[in-house]
Amino acid sequence: MGVKLLGSRKQLVSPILAHPMSENASAPHDFIHEMIRADVAAGKHGGKVVTRFPPEPNGFLHIGHAKAICIDFGVAKDFGGRCHLRMDDTNPTTEDESYVQAIARDVRWLGFEWGTHMYYASDAFERYYELGQKLIRLGRAYVCDLSEEEFSKNYRGTITEPGKESPYRKRSVVENLDLFERMRKGEFKDGEKVLRARIDMSSPNMKMRDPPLVRIKHTRHYRAGNAWCIYPLYDFAHCLEDSFEGVTHSLCTLEFESARELYDWVIRATEVPHVPKQTEFARLNLTYTVMSKRLLKALVDGHFVRGWDDPRMPTLAGLRRRGVTPEAIREFCYRIGVSRNLSTVEMELLEHTVREDLDSRAPRAMAILRPLKVVIESIAEGAPPEMLPAPFWPAGTTPAPGVKAGMRELPLTRDIYIEREDFAETPPKGWRRLAPGCEVRLFYAYVITCTKVVKNEAGDIIELRAIHDPSTRGGVPTPGKRVDGTIQWVSATHGKKAEVRLYDRLFRAPLPGENGRDWLGDLNPHSLEIVEAVVEPALADAAPGDRYQFTRLGYFFADDDSKPGASVFNRTVMLKDSWAKVIAKEKDSGAPPSSPKAKAEGGSRPSKPPPRDGTVPELSSDAKALVASHGLSETEARVISQEPALKAIFKDTLRDCPAMLKPVASLLANDVLGELHARKLEALPFGAKETVELVALVSDGRISTKQRKEVLVAMIDGCVRSPLAIVTAGGMKQIADADALGPIVDQVLAASADAVARYRAGNANVMGALVGLVMKASKGQANPKLVCELLKQKLGGATPCP
Questions:
Q1: What is the pLDDT of residue 162?
Q2: What is the DSSP string of 381-426?
Q3: Longest Cα pair distance anywhere in the chain, in angstroms?
């Protein structure tokens, strides 16, 4: 049975491999397709294409797996083949049936079906044992008494020195067979013996230096029970299962590249009849989250989130509960493409894709998250509600098939609620919402004017009084009268209460744990805010799974916790930020805030959005002056002119240290702005003197740009404001001495044999990873350029430094 892609006709096009939004798209020409196209043309495997998606059932699938799923199932579909779903379940200590069910559910939800081709590696335990015996008989494996720790420390060798043979390598076939059988019978303790491949202890690929194949684990297997106490390791079982299933193309991520030689050796050494081919592609890395199941499990076990399906998690279950559709995930996977180049995709691309997808799936409705009561005194007390027609969809938007269309009626009453942030008692220049004596348009209703502000004894605003213009029904002002602002509202007497969970990014740093930081320290303390909102009557009985766009607020999804009369909504994603056009334009021109470097160091968008029609706002006179007089980019000028805290530091720098003005402006518009927004600060605890000092530490080479971020955080969080004092106390001085860095580089190379082998085999992308490992080992103190030069000296080659 071939690959089946579930869902509507729109979904029938294979994701990644043909554009999911185009019904006539042809298979693309990425390197995987070209390879398979050539294999099919050459008649390999009889022209058949069989792939597999082989997760280990030790956690929930995340969006990184979605890319692999789309490639594995999509390639098979494009070539008329089939894709298997396999549980690589040979490690009894971490696997569970609940994970198996979750994996199958997520793959189906994503839109794929495997028919009768679901397999379990654990079903082949007997075959692995028999092939272990075969390797022994052929002199290609032996039972070793060395622990893995002892073997690694004293026998495996290093990347520059060959290993030594195990003292048990020359055991006879008879003795090895006897010991292997006794291993199976349970006569030995965990780790007491292991079956090793007999390959080459001088191989430049460390994985080929007599790797372990079968180990002892006296642990119950979730599927096989207590029938076994020896279990094959991944590198032994995985390739054999590919062969057993008739897989033609074993597609996996780049971390398995160094294992390909062992993959091929096991297939040849066991002499199995079917020979699959392993090919690697770059895995998906995403900013502002983690993609390791180990780390995700730590978040769950540590109760940092509410479970694997917490909407803040990058798991498919979490994304589903947040309201992301499988179509959006498939489209996202298509957009990032297939390549062998390691990279990190920005969260903004995923969010943008989700918005585009939900635009035709989410009917519009009104909700008030932080209510402020408005009494429209021109409507008589006790008057019946006026029912106003309102469309679910704006003009020009065609709802997706099966999504509710048409109109609903909104009850307008004397008492209504508006968003508290839509009122300003003392409005700033250009304010387009409600203020004393100012007019604003209510969606689908009337133009109202604020006539009075009511406060409590503490001076807090608790209520507004207003009048409406009866001639503006439908929100249309009278001829010759202009009203710029339009806001949402809900009847105070007919609106319904609802719990709204405002989810944000789980981490506040683009790369959690970068440069040896505590990754849990990068968690965003504001990733979830729960508010009691008031929603329009049409949302009172929203069923779990319903989607809406709350006018001017974002896309929301009715959670499974919803009950009749007690709706619960999860924020899927905020509305599109019109600054995207500004950022895209400035990225092309190399402006600092949008550059990858700036984003990695905590850059943030300007705080004040442009008009909601999507046009880019013209620079203010203050911003224009900054551009003209000091050579700032438009984005830097816009940010600094709009943020009082940044403007004050810039002004003082201009007065006291004008030579440092441009680097200070760049720091303010990126790192400092990011911290200002992330912490919702009104003011900064330091001034121009400390800012100039921080910039000077970087320009003088005392600290790296990565360390600059750490110092900035310490300046805000700690009681010491001087960057120099923080650097001195923390021992954060940048290491720019080759003699001091040499031992660190050697240590990393010795512990990274696989990466070294991949680099020497021609994979230049590994250089960036090695530089990162040295930076991590030096706790971010190493000079990255010097690190790269040292690596090139020790490894050879002329790879440009990343």
A1: 93
A2: TTPPPEEEEEESS-TT-PPPTTS--SEEEEEE-SEEEEEGGGB-SS
A3: 102
Cβ pair 471, 489 in contact under 8 A: no
Out of 82, 293, 320, 408, pick the active-site residue: 293
Both tokens of 345, joined, read 């995709």
Q: What's at 323, amino acid-wise? A: G
Percent of the chain, pLDDT > 90?
A: 61
- DSSP string for 293-328: HHHHHHHHHTTSSSSTT-TTSSBHHHHHHHT--HHH
Q: DSSP class of residue 563?
A: B
Two tokens, residue 494 = 């007919």
Contact present, 206 and 757 (Cβ < 8 Å) = yes
Q: At residue 641, does pLDDT exceed 90?
A: no
Helices (H), 400-520: none
Active site residue 56: yes
Q: Which position has the token pair 């298509």? A: 334
Cα separation, 66 vs 284, in Å, equals: 9
DSSP character string of 109-165 = HHTEE-TT-EEEGGGGHHHHHHHHHHHHHTTSEEEE-S-HHHHHHHTS--SSS----
Question: What is the spatial distance between Cα 121 and Cα 54, in angstroms, rounded to a whole number?
Answer: 9
Question: Which position among 48, 127, 220, 283 bears the catalytic label?
Answer: 283
**283 catalytic, yes or no?**
yes
Is 208:265 a contact under the CB 8 Å cutoff?
yes
- What per-residue confidence (pLDDT) applies to 483? 84
pLDDT at 764 over 80: no
Q: How far apart are CA 87 and CA 125, in angstroms?
A: 13
Q: What is the pLDDT of residues 192-203, one digit of tens each?
A: 999 999 999 999
Give the CA dihedral 503, 507, 509, 513, nearest 10 degrees: -170
The tens digit of pLDDT for each residue in 432-448 reads 899 999 999 999 999 99
Residue 17: predicted pLDDT:
41
First to last CA, the chain: 45
Rounded distance between C-alpha atoms, residue 223 and residue 550, angstroms: 46
Which long-range contacts does 144-150 make (Cβ < 8 Å, 24+ apart)?
A: 144/168, 144/169, 144/193, 144/194, 144/195, 144/196, 144/210, 144/212, 145/192, 145/193, 146/194, 147/191, 148/191, 148/194, 148/212
C-alpha distances (whole Å) from 59 to each of 93, 99, 112, 131, 253 are 12, 6, 20, 29, 18
Q: Return all residues near 332 (Cβ < 8 A) that are at least 6 apart.
A: 63, 66, 349, 350, 353, 354
Q: State pLDDT tens for residues 51-90.
A: 999 999 999 999 999 999 999 999 999 999 999 999 999 9
Q: Which residue has the higher pLDDT, 407 or 798?
A: 407
With beta carbons less than 8 A apart as the criterion, state whether 7 and 123 touch.
Answer: no
Tell me if residue 521 falls in helix, strand or coil: helix
Give the pLDDT band (50/70/90) at residue 26. Answer: low
Alpha-carbon distance 590 to 75, whole Å?
Answer: 37
Take residue 546 and report the two structure tokens written for it. 């319903």
pTM value is: 0.71
